Design the sequence.
């Protein structure tokens, strides 16, 4: 068996895992999966590996097993899941993952990338540029007259999203990059002194480590929803709650809504209903920009005060610190700011060319699986020690790990030499279909796999906001 190498051991250590459990992992390496200049395959494998091992560990503890079940990582399953939004079909229709104004643009001195998938972000972008219609030619002309940094600041000041392309060296010198580099990959806090309620023992098959865990899902887009989608796979009762005036993009909801229920609450008028949910929640996962929920009393500290023993998990784009701590952000924009787009486009050394992108929104997906792993490990630690906990991750810190902390190469032990020599080709083996209220869905299976564990979600996604705001 090949010894476990740095990426998986680093991810497992980041979530507080016992290194003695690492030999329970095995890996099927498939060349060509998530091919990139940067070690995306290794990052993806490590994040999923930490999540699957954390699930197996919690399941073993709750079921009273003498040994943690073996975890099998397959590069094919992982690569397919990391682009799950691209594989989704709804009644044969493929989703549009980026709106026409979400793209790279030339500026007077370089490049900028905008994000305008949501209508309110699109309106703010146009307002900042003084463009009255959703016309790519008009937007391009307005951007070409300004510098990239000028666009970045003007659009952010208007509440929109635009980021100037930076090289790795330029990002390393930025105040936000310095603040991000000071933080661990996963931040941990013990938030109170209350003894948590012990989770009941498990029996039966499949082994569902998170069975009976109530997860209040206050996330959007990809990273947070991937984490809660994974907790739902593992048996948690996941209730996603959104503001009724901020609907999720339908295809995005379909991709990340498996196993969950979806409700809407206006926290300015439905506060009692929310507090009733919080009163018996075990986990709250938030994915809004830092500080955005504080006015509703939803900071980690405020939540822990009202619900002692709670596990709070927070994910953001730039981190909850530094000059960009309160900014909105998405995977594609973090790639541009941190030098990833320059590296993938062959521009990292200042060479002329066009910016590139990772083969997947790997910062989103990778951070999502790490976030789920951190929640699972927090539940395991609670079973031993009690106490509430808070874990925090950011896409920018995951980007730091990808660009400076991971060396490319195989991870883990190979399940078999024959499988290990196979190239990653068509993803059909890791796709499946089922009927749903949204139509017939083709989707990627979860890559989180361990002996005796679940192979698919208990149910498909339903319509956004269609469920009652209450626990099962």
Sequence:
């Amino acid at each position: 068996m090949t010894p476990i190498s740095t990426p998986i051991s680093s991810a497992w250590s980041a979530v507080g895992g016992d290194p003695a459990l690492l030999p329970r992992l095995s890996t099927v390496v498939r060349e060509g999966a998530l091919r990139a200049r940067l070690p995306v395959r290794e990052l993806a494998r490590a994040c999923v590996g930490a999540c699957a091992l954390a699930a197996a560990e919690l399941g073993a503890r709750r079921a009273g097993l003498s040994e943690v079940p073996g975890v099998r990582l397959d590069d094919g399953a992982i690569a397919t899941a990391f682009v799950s939004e691209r594989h989704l079909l709804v009644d044969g229709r493929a989703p549009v993952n980026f709106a026409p104004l979400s793209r790279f643009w030339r500026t007077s001195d370089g490049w900028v990338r905008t994000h305008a998938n949501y209508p309110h972000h699109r309106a703010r972008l146009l307002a900042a540029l003084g463009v009255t219609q959703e016309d790519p030619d008009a937007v391009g002309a307005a951007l070409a007259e300004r510098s990239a940094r000028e666009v970045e600041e003007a659009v952010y000041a208007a509440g929109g999203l635009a980021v100037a392309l930076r090289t790795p060296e330029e990002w390393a010198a930025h105040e936000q990059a310095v603040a991000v580099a000071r933080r661990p990959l996963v931040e941990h806090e013990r938030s109170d002194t209350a003894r948590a309620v012990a989770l009941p023992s498990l029996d039966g098959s499949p082994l569902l480590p998170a069975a009976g865990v109530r997860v209040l899902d206050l996330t959007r887009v990809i990273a947070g929803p991937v984490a809660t989608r994974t907790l739902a796979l593992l048996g948690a009762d996941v209730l996603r709650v959104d503001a009724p005036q901020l609907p999720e993009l339908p295809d995005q909801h379909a991709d990340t809504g498996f196993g969950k229920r979806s409700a809407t609450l206006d926290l300015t008028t439905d506060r009692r209903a929310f507090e009733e949910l919080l009163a018996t929640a075990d986990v709250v996962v938030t994915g809004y920009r830092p500080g955005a929920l504080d006015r509703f009393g939803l900071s980690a500290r405020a939540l822990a005060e009202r619900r002692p023993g709670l596990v709070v998990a927070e994910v953001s784009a730039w981190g909850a610190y530094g000059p960009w701590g309160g900014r909105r952000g998405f995977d594609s924009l973090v790639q541009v700011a941190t030098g990833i787009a320059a590296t993938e486009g062959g521009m990292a050394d200042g060479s002329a060319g066009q910016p590139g992108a990772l083969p997947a929104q790997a910062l989103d997906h990778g951070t999502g699986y790490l976030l789920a792993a951190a929640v699972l490990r927090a539940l395991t630690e609670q079973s031993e020690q009690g106490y509430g906990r808070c874990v925090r991750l950011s896409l920018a810190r995951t980007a730091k790990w990808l660009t400076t902390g991971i060396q490319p190469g195989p991870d883990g032990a190979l399940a078999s030499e024959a499988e290990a020599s196979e190239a990653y080709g068509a993803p059909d083996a890791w796709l499946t279909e089922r009927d749903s209220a949204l139509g017939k869905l083709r989707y990627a299976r979860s890559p989180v796999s361990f002996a005796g564990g679940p192979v698919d979600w208990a149910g498909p996604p339903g319509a956004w906001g269609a469920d009652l705001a209450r626990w099962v």
Remarks:
- The CA atoms of residues 215 and 238 lie 5 Å apart.
